[in-house]
Every structure is written in structure tokens, then in C-alpha cells.
Amino acid sequence: SAVISQKPSRDICQRGTSLTIQCQVDSQVTMMFWYRQQPGQSLTLIATANQGSEATYESGFVIDKFPISRPNLTFSTLTVSNMSPEDSSIYLCSAGTGAADTQYFGPGTRLTVL
Amino acid sequence: GENVEQHPSTLSVQEGDSAVIKCTYSDSASNYFPWYKQELGKRPQLIIDIRSNVGEKKDQRIAVTLNKTAKHFSLHITETQPEDSAVYFCAASKGNNRLAFGKGNQVVVIP
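Output (C-alpha cells, whole complex):
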């Protein structure tokens, strides 16, 4: 499986600011995804990061709030814009490698918004 | 969209006993079913998965069974050990790389 890293691992931010989270994979992957996991909850897919085109967002998530970039096959960023305390969560990226649908997760970014 | 449910929400077992977690899914087109283990403060770790063309898959002490007719699949952990204590998530996908996750099961192995 691919090795996936994220930066930062955690951050505390002020309301109204934005934070960009980076996800790096150690090999080229076809698919990259961004998830949100609120404390004690399950994982919710935010969007699929498409290389060379706009991300595909799930219902309830919009590009203005969560802009995503994927400049190549090993890297993606997720920005959480105009943050509010409700955005406090763990944000995880995943990468699809090997067989179809198989996904491996990064370590996550724990975001706290004050 | 796909709806995945997990039962029970919390499971306590004595060390050495077996643990079984069951998930049901709603979309009959789903054909890929992974299980993830998440320890406190760690990333979800893929531990086993099954595709709809097989009914059972085993890897050492863990196994997954799939019943397509009833639309449910189960995780079986035998000879449980304290390090098996974690939250376990099931998921389902229709082959479009979009995983729908269940709410998770807290498994506690009592030494």
C-alpha cells in the first residue's frame, strides 16, 4: 500500500480564517479523496480530487467552502474556508491504489476552530 | 444513495473469545465491502475487504462473510486479543470509488 502523509497534523484557527491541508502520497495514484470525521463519528466523503479537472463534491459540500486542488498524481490540498467552530473536525485524505475501490488513509489533520 | 448500518454499536468480549460485527447495506448494486480498524487518535486502517463475487474471505484471525441476497456482511475476529480493541467501520461501494461508511462499532476486549 502507498504511504500517505498529511500536513499539518493539527491546528487551532480563529473563526473567519482559512486553512489549507496538504496530502502527499509516495507513489502515483489514480484516485484521491477527502473525508471529514467529527469527534466520535463516522467518515463522511467531502469530495473526490480529480487530477487535471475540478473536484467532484458530495451532497452538502461546496467548492466555495472546501476548494480542492490536485496538481499531479501524488499531491492534493483541501482548504477549509471562512471557518466557524462547526468546522472543527478531523480531515483525512485517502488514496485509491491497487484494486478498484481500495482506499488507504492518511493520518488526518485535527482542526479546532475557536 | 447507499445506506450502511452497523450492529451492535458497542461490543465487549472476553480475551480469547470471538467477536462478530454485522453490517447491512441498502443498494443491491454495491459490490465492494471493506472493513477498517481505527484505534484512538490513529488513521482508519484497512484490515480486510471482500468483493461480491465471493462469499467469504479469511486472513489469519479475521474473516469477512457476505450474503448478497440479504444484503449484509459480517466481520469475524477469533481468539480476540487486547490489541483488537478499537472502532471498526464497515463500508460499501458500487465500484465508483465512493465509499459509504457505517457509523462504527466500538469493540472492547477485556483481558
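The CA atoms of residues 33 and 48 of chain A lie 5 Å apart.
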